[in-house]
């Protein structure tokens, strides 16, 4: 198994719409012949991580399923790597910043290259671990990329930082929670990591680490790690990011929250990245102060903060029964649409997804599934799902359109909602 890193090192190179100053060459031949550990369970073998491993085994159901979720083709693994021009082999004092992207393409935020150069940091952002990838795989690939870069560039082990945007932010923050022996701190942009249940207006943000014992929290505190969360007044994750800090402080973990005026759901400016690194690297005792940097309204006419919201994961399945001995031609792919339900039977469309379906000879029909990830909703919102299929049953009536609406229910043992198998019938009618 290999992990390849694309190293961008002195000319202007445009990557994902971002211009960066690199040094001399582009390399695609760098490879790590073996991952950090051969199995995911070995990543969690340390005594400190045993509670996390036990929770993972419970979530995935078996060690085999856990390993399958974390597996990836390291031979095809690549990363975007920025090497400041001042770096040279054998020169000490250089650190590493790893950036977890919410998309499959790795990148470093616009303007951050100058901060990396000033702080003597190599920038690495793996490809192929966007929000659609399993959380375990995203963590494993980031750990392997860290090990590869550490070997290649002679990194100071005490200066390894991790960060990310949106879904990548929660991965970065989790890596420092679970692997504080590898990372000095996290820079989390526009996404919270509620360690325990966080009260919110009309609901609660579910905790990600309710399974952790006080002994493990105490061990984490012993590492002295720090987490910097950044959001904006126009970011839809503003409520969850700013609401979580009391829980972190209750656990005596060092966290700083910055709110950037008028910033929506996008990367923090370079100045905020520099503040984050300064906070993480500050000497003990320099950061024992209130850290919620929420700007004060300039006038009484400014709008109040938006209500608490939550990220919802909705899955569902549907079965269309087709009359026996009927030639069937499908039209456009099936569609599922999620609506937010309001007063007076009003509804607001949130998202639409295609329904992937397969033919079931046993049941003589189409079995379809759909999924919506990270829908942002008010904490107490209700939703409905409408699904539709177009099919010509060769009865002379052309395309039949079948639609139905269902209200999802909580997923057993998992956050989010699901729709159980919904039965629908497409009936052939007498031809015209």
Task: Tell me the layout of helices and strands.
Elements: E1 3-8, E2 12-15, E3 18-21, E4 26-32, H1 40-43, H2 50-60, H3 63-70, E5 79-82, E6 95-100, H4 112-118, E7 121-126, H5 135-153, E8 160-165, H6 167-178, E9 185-189, E10 198-200, E11 203-205, H7 214-223, E12 226-232, H8 238-243, H9 245-250, E13 254-260, H10 270-281, E14 292-293, E15 309-321, E16 329-330, E17 334-341, E18 347-360, E19 365-378, E20 382-392, E21 399-406, E22 409-410, E23 417-425
Parallel strand pairs: 1-5, 6-7, 6-8, 8-9, 9-12, 12-13, 13-14, 15-23
Antiparallel strand pairs: 1-4, 2-3, 5-7, 10-11, 15-19, 16-20, 17-18, 17-20, 18-19, 20-21, 22-23
Percent range for β-strand residues: 25-35%
Question: Which structural class matches the secondary elements?
Answer: alpha/beta
- How does the major sheet shape up? 10 strands, mixed
Strand order of the largest sheet: 4-1-5-7-6-8-9-12-13-14
Rg, please?
Answer: 25 Å
Question: Separation of termini?
Answer: 62 Å
Q: Flag low-confidence runs.
A: 7-33, 285-307
The helix content, as a percent range, equals 10-25%
Mean pLDDT: 80
Number of strands: 23
Quickly count the helices. Answer: 10
Write down the overall geometry: elongated
């Amino acid at each position: 198994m290999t992990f390849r890193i694309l190293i961008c090192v002195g000319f202007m190179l445009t990557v994902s719409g971002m211009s960066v100053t690199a040094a001399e060459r582009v390399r695609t031949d760098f490879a790590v012949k073996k991952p950090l550990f051969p199995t995911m369970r070995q990543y969690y073998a340390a005594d400190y991580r045993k509670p996390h491993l036990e929770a993972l085994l419970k979530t995935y159901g078996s060690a085999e399923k856990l390993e399958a979720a974390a597996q990836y083709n390291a031979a095809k693994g690549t990363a975007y790597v920025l090497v400041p021009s001042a770096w040279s082999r054998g020169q000490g004092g250089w650190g590493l910043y790893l950036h977890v992207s919410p998309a499959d393409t790795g990148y470093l935020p616009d303007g951050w290259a100058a901060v990396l150069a000033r702080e003597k940091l190599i920038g690495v952002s793996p490809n192929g671990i966007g929000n659609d990838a399993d959380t375990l795989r995203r963590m494993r690939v980031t750990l392997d990329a860290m090990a590869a870069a550490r070997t290649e560039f002679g990194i100071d082990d005490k200066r390894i930082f991790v960060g990310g945007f949106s879904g990548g932010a929660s991965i970065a923050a989790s890596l420092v929670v679970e692997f504080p022996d590898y990372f000095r701190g996290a820079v989390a942009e526009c996404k919270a990591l509620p360690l325990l249940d966080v009260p919110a207006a009309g609901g609660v943000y579910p905790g990600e680490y309710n399974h952790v014992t006080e002994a493990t929290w105490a061990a984490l505190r012993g590492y002295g790690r720090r987490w910097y969360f950044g959001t904006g007044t126009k970011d839809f994750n503003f409520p969850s990011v700013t609401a979580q800090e009391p829980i972190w402080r209750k656990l005596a973990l060092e966290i700083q929250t910055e709110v950037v005026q008028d910033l929506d759901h996008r990367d923090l400016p370079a100045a905020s990245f520099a503040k984050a690194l300064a906070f993480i690297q500050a000497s003990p005792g320099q950061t024992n102060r209130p850290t919620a940097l929420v700007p004060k309204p300039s006038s009484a006419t400014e709008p109040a903060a938006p209500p608490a919201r939550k990220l919802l994961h909705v899955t569902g399945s549907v079965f269309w029964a087709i009359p026996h001995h009927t030639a069937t031609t499908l039209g456009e792919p099936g569609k599922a649409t999620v609506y937010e339900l309001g007063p007076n039977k009003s509804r607001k469309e949130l998202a639409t997804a295609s329904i992937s379906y397969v033919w079931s000879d046993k049941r003589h029909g189409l079995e379809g599934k759909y999924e919506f990830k990270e829908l942002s909703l008010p904490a107490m919102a209700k939703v409905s799902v409408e699904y539709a299929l177009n099919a010509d049953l060769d009865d002379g009536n052309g395309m039949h359109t079948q639609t139905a609406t269902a209200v999802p229910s909580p997923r057993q043992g998992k956050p989010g909602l699901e729709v159980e198998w919904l039965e629908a019938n497409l009936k052939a009618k007498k031809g015209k």
